[in-house]
Write a structure and sequence with these properties.
Number of strands: 8
Structural class: alpha/beta
Distance between the termini: 66 Å
CATH topology of the largest domain: Rossmann fold
Length: 275
């Protein structure tokens, strides 16, 4: 008998939601072998039947699905019973329970989360804005930013900015060499918009910068990777943040997602205070 589980992910949309759920599920069970078979945009009984015909040929097949059409989901469950292949609907009970709580019928529309509404276009605009205002570019337009990130080199400014943009925030990021490198507009009006300082432990920055220089095949970077110089950079950056009363986040042990979540909370506080 095979020790490898054949996981069939069946979705009536792109399958991204189901894949993420399975990744989270898989993380709970160590030392188990899986082979994943992904089927997106599955919207007919014939498609489902063909998948099950393939699945029953292999041992240890398991079906996970996100299908919002009730009739199609019932058909899938019936085929599963007949062929004795375990299957689990990921969203079915959740949609039903939410419907009861909200006292509203669900639309059962596949890809509902991808509907091209105003929020979608705002997010696209935020991404475009953020890409154009990366690494100190177009600083004359920073007053159009929802959020401005300031920090020394290698403090995750760009990936955090992109993540925030995907959440709909127009984000500029500015590399902080010293206080003089800040845009005059920002120094004259430190509360121009929501400004957040990013920092990291100097020892961590040494490693990140050395890796950066190696990837670029650069060698003349003594000051850039020198621990004592970086300590001064970080210390001066913190003094600058304190001077302008900008909140500071230490990203040393934070993922981009965690850093972004903290920034979003700071942005909410900023908006409340600005009222």
């Amino acid at each position: 008998m095979s020790n490898t589980y054949q996981i069939y992910l069946i979705s009536d949309s792109t399958g991204e939601t189901l894949e993420r759920i399975f990744l989270a599920l898989k993380a709970q069970f160590k030392n188990i072998k899986y082979k994943v078979h992904s089927y997106s945009f599955t919207r007919t009984e014939n498609q489902i039947l063909k998948i099950f015909e393939d699945a029953e040929k292999i041992e240890n097949s398991v079906i996970l699905y996100t299908i919002v059409d009730n009739n199609l989901a019932k058909y899938l469950a019936n085929v599963s019973d007949k062929k004795k292949i375990p299957c689990f609907g990921v969203l079915g009970n959740l949609i039903l329970n939410f419907s009861k709580i909200l006292n509203q019928k669900a639309s059962h529309e596949p890809s509902g989360q991808h509907t091209l509404n105003e929020e979608y276009y705002d997010r696209i605009e935020a991404i475009q804005f953020t890409m154009n205002h990366d690494d100190g570019n177009l600083i004359n337009e920073i007053d159009r930013s929802d959020i401005i990130l300031v920090g020394v080199s290698r403090t995750s400014k760009t990936p955090t900015s992109i993540y925030l943009a995907n959440k709909g925030f127009k984000t500029s990021n500015i590399p902080l060499v010293n206080e003089n490198s800040l845009p005059e507009k920002l120094k004259q009006n430190p509360k121009l918009t929501c400004v957040v300082g990013l920092s990291s432990e100097p020892e961590r920055l040494v490693d990140l910068r050395k890796n950066r220089m190696n990837s670029l095949k650069e060698t003349d970077s003594i000051n850039y990777t020198n621990l004592e110089d970086i300590k001064k950079e970080v210390s001066n950056a913190k003094k600058t943040f304190q001077k302008y009363k900008w909140p500071l986040i230490d990203v040393t042990r934070k993922s981009v997602e965690e850093t972004a979540a903290s920034i979003i909370k700071i942005h909410e506080i900023y908006l409340n205070n600005a009222k």
